[in-house]
Write a structure and sequence with these properties.
The protein has a two-stranded antiparallel sheet. The mean pLDDT is 86. 71% of the residues lie in helices and 11% in strands. It is elongated.
Length: 100
């Protein structure tokens, strides 16, 4: 069921993108700094490029906290392992008895 819903969502997204592309075929020229011009390009290509660059930027920004948390998790896992080994070692120590 979940696969079918994902497939339907993907098809709908494709159709929306296709209609966006067919309705925005006008050509535009991009003017950058220092007189640099790019184009003429179809408007849908410019929109698609900006969307993809924005998505990549968002992914890169979200990687920082994920990597930080992963490193913290690995450090805590390593600390837990060393504490578990120490606990096992302390449990296996012989008990001292007073012989007075």
């Amino acid at each position: 069921m979940r696969f079918a819903l994902n497939f339907i969502a993907l098809v709908l997204l494709f159709l929306v993108g296709l209609t966006l592309a067919t309705q925005n075929m006008e050509e535009v020229t991009l003017h950058y700094y220092f007189g640099v011009e790019v184009g003429p390009l179809p408007l849908y290509m410019v929109l698609l490029t900006v969307f993809i660059v924005g998505m990549l930027f968002a992914v890169l920004l979200s990687l920082s906290p994920v990597l930080r948390l992963r490193l913290r998790y690995l450090k805590m896992k390593r600390d837990n392992l060393s504490m578990t080994k120490e606990l096992e070692r302390l449990r296996n120590l012989p008990l001292e008895q007073d012989l007075e």
